[in-house]
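Notes continue from the previous slide.

Worked example: a multi-chain complex. Inputs as given:
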Amino acid sequence: MKKIKLKDFKKALSKWGEVYIRTRDGFLKEGRLSSKKSKKSPKEFLLPREEVLLAIHKKGADTEVLEAHPSKKKVVMGALPCDMKGLELTTKNFLNSPEDPYYKKRVENTLFVSEMCQYPSSSCFCTSFDYGPSSKMGDITYFRLNDDNVLCEPISEKGKKALLWEQYPDAGEKDLEIMEKMLRETAKRLQKLNISYDFSRAREVYASSELKDAVFSCLNCGACTYVCPTCYCFDIRDIERKDFVLRERVWDSCMFFVYSLEASGHNPRKNRSKRAENRFMHKFFYQPLQYKEFGCTGCGRCVDVCPAGYDIRETIRSIQSFMEGKNG
Amino acid sequence: MAEYINPYYPQKSKILNTYFESQDRSLKTFDIKPIESKVPEFIPGQFCEVSIGGYGESPFGIATSPTEKDFLRFTVNKAGFLTSKLHELSKGSYVGIRGPLGNGYPLDRFKGNNIVIVGGGFAFTTLRSLLVFMLHNRNDFKDITVLYGARTPDLFLYKDELKEWEKRDDVDLVLTIDKPYEGWNKKVGLVPPVLEEMSPSPVESYAVVCGPPIMIKFTLPVLFKLGFKPDRIYTSLEKRMKCGIGKCGRCNVGHKYICKDGPVFSFEELNKLPEDL
Amino acid sequence: MEKVKEELKRLLQEGEIKGVLGFVPSSSPQKNRVFYTENPDDVSRFTVSLFNTPNLTTYLFRFKDKGKIALFLRPCEQRALNVLISEGKIKREDVFVIGVPCQGAVDPFRLEEQVDAEINSVEVKDDKILVNNAISVYIKEVMPYSCRVCEDVEEDVDIKIDGEDKRPSHEEYSKIEDFDKKTPSEKWAFFKETFERCTRCYACREVCPMCYCEQCFVDSYDPLWVEPGLSLQDIMSYHLIKMYHMAGRCTNCGACERACPENIPLSLLTSMLAHRLKRDFGYISGKNGTQKVFLGEYHYEDKGDFIK
């Protein structure tokens, strides 16, 4: 690993693209690198809140369709392992066949500089999954040694090419020891849940009263789905402008009534609890069945943002009990 | 490098012809041809996203058979925002087409078997595709039985073709309407009891059931009673789809996406998925 | 509280009520979790505090025709129930109201913003909250404005928890009157700055007992009232049209503001509705369950001079 001054590091990265750093609210151009996870995950760098896919120009009865090509180069600095894990999961969805060209372009145009995490909070439970605060992810990873210095190393080819690595000094033994120690301390402070589910029982779990009771407090607002690093559902909408139409994709949320409403008027998740149940099932059963990985990274943002005090960990535990045949 | 394909990009297509299927003008058929490319190859049971700029996209099952290569046919029930606009379009207008999408009927599995088609109302679109395909490759299949029900005689799709098929002796076609109707001298009765009366053999047979949910609900027990196993009964679920390519997340039933893993499923597959339909 | 819990337990055991809806502590001390039970043994878990965030009447719609449900309600929340009763949405006999002495309600997200640290414990001490045994915050500063201007209810409760209403610094609608004095451009600047933060998560809608439409106008494609993105125009259209639908119905309980993860002071808007209603029509929404719906009746002497 190399030892670099934080401000030199940021400056060097800015040659690759516009640098967005982790702040308390989200990843912003301005502001100080925060000592917490951000309220919002950086998923919007790959899947913006709203994104133009096509512009449809009307020329009388005829039309011409133009594609959008996102091309701005951006550096996402300070994404924590839970953020990166989330992007790994959304990437599985967008880059499996057929590849999503917009998402792919954005992946190519974004340099992810991840930070090993020293900021566990009471809502965090990342070590319940197959990674943790010391996981080295993204294109470049770094450890914040102190306010002024970072220890960093490239991970991907893109990361290797992004900086002139040889010009920086290697990290000393002592610095590396500090890093190891701090990361061990962090891991110790994290809550680890036992999640050993039999995914083949998905149908049974979805129909169970245990799941229904566990999600009762959910109000079905979309707050958790917007801050979640793995929620990727979107809607495609045509937006009329004067001489053209923009075909956009906008974030959608499975919490909303209209999300699952069918053209016939039928809605399989008319019932509020069914929508919350489906979200849990998607993260903890369906994604493992689809992608062999949980759809949750344990970042705890949904716990932080919920206005009704709902905590997904309680549902995880009660389904664990259900799996083990105990009564919640 | 692989060829760059944008799966969201609609192929500009021309409406070659339109005709109303029913006198109440709720069902309109469109024959559509891409103008910058060939009519794509597809499998019966697949669908396309049809779009009009400013009105969005909706999925429609392809009603033509892969053996009819001149255009794609879609029959549209006037129900919402896009479908109302589509109904306003006539010959010569342009629409966008994306597809074919989805899995289609398992033709390889169907080959060499008896096929029982049970259709209701305007869900006969992909069933027409399947039927025309099978009639074109008639020797690949054993007996073909078709039961098609509609509320009134007016609401059958493809009436001219139905007449042709009725005359053929290599397909057993039964049409039924829900209630007696003046001038109708064929079967009267709901699909499930008529099917029971017909009692097609389950031996070396597959059944394909498409129609309104209520029809499917009451047809399944009849098929089971006749001895059809869930893995030999197929249906098509064209619902809740948005992107059509398994990205947007909206059409999930358990860990399957209707648009990508379906829309054709056997009831054995559906029985394993969470109940979310 | 203990006496009430005993009574609830008895009512459940004897089948006089079907279930109890209330709050239990959650993993975040600044916001308790909504909890429903039909089991008498669970009754002891309920808690009543400043950190009970949503208005429980919202959850009543889930129990339609399911029997009599007991729930904990502050006065402003009782008013919301009254509105729902007068709108014919809920039957009084289906509800068992547990009156809660009100000390106001804390906005958990505002508290987080104020202390700027992870909240591990909260303790109420007079007019302050002690966070993590270290940081002291005035309650009134972490409450929605609505808590400072709340109106009384003609009490109609089935049981009451002992204790006095200790509402924080009750004041007249001075902030609203000050706002009225601003110029249109100042007002717009205020709206722009505060509403820009909206992510359209609709927590304010889902938590609102008055927002019971099965399909909200913002979710309609045809006609398309509001476009789906985050342009200020669309955000404002959502919030202002929502306010139109609140006129004469909203009881200013402040649940929308407390639910907003972005700390948008929504109760300023609802307080303005309450202020106009009181000033111009002498009407207090949900004062009781028998008064007519505000927009459902007309009086000759009703003020019309706001129509220009």
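Summary box: Chain C has a mean pLDDT of 91. Chain C touches chain B at residues 221-222 (CB under 8 Å).
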